[in-house]
Design goal:
By secondary structure, this protein is of the alpha+beta class. It has one domain. It is built from 3 helices and 2 strands. The protein has a two-stranded parallel sheet. The chain starts with a helix and ends with a helix. The relative contact order is 0.22.
Length: 58
């Protein structure tokens, strides 16, 4: 992602995630805080110890 952001000279962008995709959206917000201007999480899942959390993080 950092190579893409640098190559395309992207300064700011918004990120939206749905369900388990929210984990990727949060990753982008954490690792690119100066670039992410807006974070939208729709029906977040996987942030607690459920069976889906275990599957998505192992």
């Amino acid at each position: 992602m950092s190579m893409f952001i640098e190559k395309e000279q992207i300064k700011n962008f918004s990120v939206a995630g749905f369900c388990l995709g929210d984990r990727f959206a949060l990753f982008l917000a954490i690792y690119f805080p100066t670039h992410v201007s807006q974070l939208i999480l729709i029906a977040p899942d996987g942030f607690y110890k459920s069976p889906w959390y275990m599957i998505s993080t192992t």
